[in-house]
Write a structure and sequence with these properties.
This protein has helices at about 5-15, 25-40, 55-65. With about 70 residues, it is mostly helical. The model has no long low-confidence stretch (mean pLDDT about 80). The protein has one domain (about 1-65). The termini are far apart.
Length: about 70
């Protein structure tokens, strides 16, 4: 995982979030994040992505209709 944290990856994620980054900033962020990611990988910690269940959207729509 730490090998995957490249400045290009940081720029791609920032672009998707509509956050402007210079290449220098992306390199700095990649260097700052890599050691933490390496520790998580070494400890075999699995961080599942939190996603909103589809049922939540259905319940929310019903509440709006009331």
């Amino acid at each position: 995982m730490p090998d995957d944290i490249s400045p290009d990856r940081v720029i791609d994620i920032a672009t998707a979030a509509r956050i402007p980054l210079t290449p220098v900033d992306a390199e700095r962020i990649a260097r700052a994040v890599a050691p933490t990611a390496a520790r998580f990988t070494a400890a075999k910690i699995d961080l599942a992505m939190e996603i909103e269940p589809a049922s939540f959207a259905a319940v929310q729509r019903r509440e709006i209709e009331r």
